[in-house]
UniProtKB/TrEMBL annotation, chains A, B:
Family label: Belongs to the peptidase S66 family.
Domain LD-carboxypeptidase C-terminal: 164-270
Key word Isomerase present: no
Protein's name according to its UniProt entry: LD-carboxypeptidase
Keywords: Carboxypeptidase, Hydrolase, Protease, Serine protease
GO molecular function annotations of the record: carboxypeptidase activity; serine-type peptidase activity
Domain LD-carboxypeptidase N-terminal: 4-115
Gene Ontology terms: biological process: proteolysis
Alphabetized InterPro entries for the sequence: Carboxypeptidase_A_C_sf, Class_I_gatase-like, LdcA_N, Peptidase_S66_N, Peptidase_S66C, S66_fam
Organism of derivation: Croceibacterium salegens
CDD domains: Peptidase_S66
């Protein structure tokens, strides 16, 4: 049996979406047991409960020996308010676990990776069940967490991490940021103007000098601006990679969508492929 | 005679707004001579001309001995693409000038302050003529640049700088960022959700540890979210200042509005007031 605790470090998940994930797991993954913390359904302004409630829920799940994995049920801003305090409270039981999610939950993946606690993994949130093709995203996670399937072979010979671009931009230079020298960094974004993507690339490429390269995930739901930006996201990524001496390595199969790939942090392609 | 060159490092200014500024200057400031670079009216996708055009216009204005000041006519993202190259090309003539603007133009003020070139000053853009009360913003700048009036007495005994919050967040940790230890840092923002303000404060307070304090300017045009954030911008600023050990010093009279105060970088209150 694989036991999976679900928590919401940012915003809450709708009950009906949690129920859809539970129903799918029950029907198709009899050897996976999912436990949504009641914190996932709390509301406190923007957040799924107060900072204390979100902190306690995450720390309790991470430190509970009965769970094999902590699956972030939703993104939405909020993890930055609890990550530093959480790391200080993680014990030995937290070290054997897998932590899976993306978007704002990348703040916790980043802090865990920095502190070498457990296995941080970029991948779909439980809340992605709402998307077109969302059931497949949920199946992908449950096959991975229950050991039925390994993550797809990494693309590069260097250890890889994956982040939402804005989330990464807010992490660089902070106490929650791991040293990514020698890493391939995948980035994706949703609902940002291309000028904001350009601005974020200026910032993160300055901070990532020394990394092994950047791969560009999907940039989706770009809002319509009063004028076109003038080039696309690939040209933006190439421009700032060139300026900062970071290799641009091409596209990555990640994004705010149901196809979002599973990317375990720090894993590289096997030597035979590199 | 005070000669003022106007350039647009980000987006272009509308001709009618430039004309309104010229008409006001002609009517009320006979001893100020304003020269809009034709680059101000160029269009290249998002920008007021290509990176080269914007770079050349700024460098030529800064290096031209006939001008006493460079006034940024518009903000809008774009200065980050030209600032590093511009600094490398500034000569002795650039050192005696005042550079005035805010918002995205803060990138150039930051780089100038870092390199100790000229006098960077936070203050209204020529394009602010469009705002309610915009004529007074233009008058404030022209009185200041033509020496009719000094900047308002600084609030604090430490040297002060002022930035748009997002602009500052993209500057911290980069080659364009000055050392702000011992400085009071004023920040303002427009058209960002409160959760984004919170996220930006997380980021900048981590980078500004060692500064003398933060003052909060106006946070305006906050978009309506699907749920309230849960606290206001003052509580956000206080929260992150507390967490990072930075003194929260109260409000600042800056913002994306016509009342936006003139703040010369690096100036502190006179000893008699401190």
């Amino acid at each position: 049996m694989t036991r999976i605790a679900l928590v919401c470090p940012g915003k809450p998940i709708l009950r009906e979406r949690a129920d859809a994930v539970l129903a799918l797991a029950e029907a198709e993954f009899p050897r996976a047991e999912l436990c949504f913390s009641k914190q996932c359904f709390e509301h406190d302004g923007h957040f799924a409960g107060s900072d204390d409630a979100r902190l306690e829920a995450f720390v309790n799940a991470a430190n509970d020996a009965q769970y094999d994995a902590v699956w972030f049920a939703m993104g939405g801003y909020g993890a930055a308010r609890i990550a530093a305090d959480a790391m200080a409270r993680l014990g030995d039981e937290a070290r054997d676990k897998t932590y899976l999610g993306y978007s704002d939950a990348g703040v916790l993946l980043s802090a865990l990776y920095r502190d070498r606690i457990g296995t941080p993994v970029h991948g779909p949130l439980a809340g992605d069940v709402r998307r077109e093709g969302g059931d497949d995203a949920i199946r992908r996670v449950l096959r991975y967490l229950s050991g039925q399937e390994t993550a797809p072979e990494p693309l590069d010979a260097q250890p890889t991490v994956a982040f939402n671009l804005m989330t990464l931009a807010m992490l660089v230079g902070t106490d929650l940021m791991p040293d990514l020298s020698g890493h391939v960094v995948m980035v994706e974004e949703v609902a940002e103007h291309l000028y904001a993507i350009d601005r974020l690339f200026f910032h993160v490429t300055q901070h990532l000098r020394g990394c092994a390269g950047i791969r560009l995930g999907r940039i989706t739901e770009v809002p319509k601006n009063d004028r076109p930006f003038g080039c696309d996201e690939v040209a933006i990524a190439q421009y700032w990679c060139d300026r900062s001496g970071i290799p641009y390595l091409g596209r990555a199969d990640i994004g705010h969508d149901a196809a979002n790939r599973i990317v375990p942090f720090g894993v590289e392609a096997r030597a035979s492929r590199s």
